[in-house]
Amino acid sequence: MYLSRFLSIHALWVTVSSVMQPYPLVWGHYDLCKTQIYTEEGKVWDYMACQPESTDMTKYLKVKLDPPDITCGDPPETFCAMGNPYMCNNECDASTPELAHPPELMFDFEGRHPSTFWQSATWKEYPKPLQVNITLSWSKTIELTDNIVITFESGRPDQMILEKSLDYGRTWQPYQYYATDCLDAFHMDPKSVKDLSQHTVLEIICTEEYSTGYTTNSKIIHFEIKDRFAFFAGPRLRNMASLYGQLDTTKKLRDFFTVTDLRIRLLRPAVGEIFVDELHLARYFYAISDIKVRGRCKCNLHATVCVYDNSKLTCECEHNTTGPDCGKCKKNYQGRPWSPGSYLPIPKGTANTCIPSISSIGNPPKFNRIWPNISSLEVSNPKQANVCDNELLHCQNGGTCHNNVRCLCPAAYTGILCEKLRCEEAGSCGSDSGQGAPPHGSPALLLLTTLLGTASPLVF
Ligand SMILES: *[C@@H]1O[C@H](CO)[C@@H](O)[C@H](O)[C@H]1NC(C)=O
Ligand SMILES: *[C@@H]1O[C@H](CO)[C@@H](O)[C@H](O)[C@H]1NC(C)=O
Ligand SMILES: *[C@@H]1O[C@H](CO)[C@@H](O)[C@H](O)[C@H]1NC(C)=O
Description:
Layout lengths: L1 H6 L3 E3 L20 E6 L2 E6 L7 E2 L5 E5 L10 E3 L10 E3 L25 E2 L12 E13 L3 E5 L6 E7 L7 E7 L2 H5 L19 E2 L12 E4 L1 H9 L6 H10 L1 H6 L1 E11 L18 E6 L1 E4 L8 E4 L2 E4 L5 E2 L5 E2 L44 H7 L19 E3 L3 E3 L4 E2 L5 E2 H5 L16 H10 L8
Helix pairs in contact: 3-4, 4-8
The site of one 2-acetamido-2-deoxy-beta-D-glucopyranose (NAG) has 8 residues, from strand 15.
């Protein structure tokens, strides 16, 4: 995997149909930018919001360490076995492949035993802090779709900060603090993501969950993307529709999951005891065997293909947009201001295509979006049309999925997924919530009602 970066081979990922993925976190359905439909005027293109598939982003990053000479083995040195200060004859030697621990071993294939890992020099200069920055750069905006997972080979650090940049490394913001003692290390009260809510989901927290250090068997640190998604999509992320809708209407939320770079700041290695054992400083170092980052190129819902060419990721823009993120209209297509595609209405969204500049053509063409009738959808694109009973979307409140394309709702309900009360739409529900009151408890359902209905969006 790591090698392919250096060979600079042309990698490309694309989905052409709504094939269901084995893991739960597919944002699904926005996998076609256009489709041919039949109307009274014959075959025409229908344009839709679209995005690349979520993928393993560690294949496309560049890694940089600070200080640059912090990797162990140059000159060769010995270190103590994990948790055993009396076995200090392990060797790190950068010039011997079997004894070297270069940074690329954080991104190679795991599953081999023993696992391969990057390792820092030991804390010989104690009490000067042993600090390392590991910076991962994509030179492209990407949207995270799954937890960031860092697996340590050493004890998990006593203090660490995960940072992100949204402007290619010019400015950095903390993403999450990790410490055995948050108050002591960062003057922050310890919190876990589970303590957050829809309204506080953007809060930057310090967690003690992953720093119990030297003695525990667990070696993993998470940055919890899925738990944050779950505030909108429900505990098993079944209601992705409501997450899409919220992302659509809340730029801050969208930006929270968007990065161009990540930085792992290792501030203090696992010590485990109150005092550092100065006689055995070769016990203390950092070692990481794996880093997982899943996400997708941010293409503003104007592309399904992201090309990796010449060590660079670029969206292959549709809808007459252009730029690395499809962030502007093509020349001669500036008939109205550029705008990102929209996830709404669910499930196909709105393409917000760029339209020809008035000056570049004789007559302004018709730009009305053509809404296909249901039967033409069924005829032209049966795969695309499975919109009401799949991994992500389900008819609600007892609705049944008719021909895979629409929910047939019980009399009291309406909406694409029967998520809305008919009387709510008509504004005639009243307050006599006695008989006929809906099972209205689920927050995700309430939120969906909010999105598709009339109530105001969440404020952060
Ligand atoms: C790591 O990066 C931070 C900024 O994000 C900087 O202040 C710090 O000095 C860097 N540390 C090292 C060891 O380079
Ligand atoms: C974009 O422009 C091309 C001509 O250059 C046209 O054929 C195509 O239909 C346009 N697409 C959209 C989405 O407007
Ligand atoms: C829907 O589209 C099909 C196929 O083009 C057409 O035969 C049918 O008459 C259309 N129905 C309506 C209600 O427009």
